[in-house]
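Researcher: Let's try something more involved. This one mixes different molecule types, so please make sure each is placed in the same coordinate frame as the others.
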Amino acid sequence: MNKTGIPTYRKRLGEAVRKRRLSLKLSQEKLSERIDCHRNYVGSVERGEQNVTIDVLMRFAKALGCTVGELAREGRF
Amino acid sequence: MNKTGIPTYRKRLGEAVRKRRLSLKLSQEKLSERIDCHRNYVGSVERGEQNVTIDVLMRFAKALGCTVGELAREGRF
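Model: All components are placed in one shared frame. Result:
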């Protein structure tokens, strides 16, 4: 936990998602289309605001061409 | 997805949790105490029935002395 009330691991997951998205040159909108969710939701996940489920994590990982394990490793959690 | 309607990755997450729990010689009840949840919930997660959140995954990982990344790697997802 930090000053924002958001657990550190969620922040780092969000950073890992953002980093992969940018390396694929995808906008939040494009990623949201791949995942079939609202664009705002992608932003919210990237800020660590969402307590995402394993099913949603899988959709993010697939859309980003990686595994949940890789996202977790990159987010160091 | 498989015949049970449970996604394969959830099944494998559950197996990874179960394997780690048994290697620590913990009962489902003991693990549930560490995680502060109902014993039945642990069994349900081990069967892949739960769409667990990242916060819950973190609690499982901590209680099992590993990271979420390790659980995901062991579950191959």
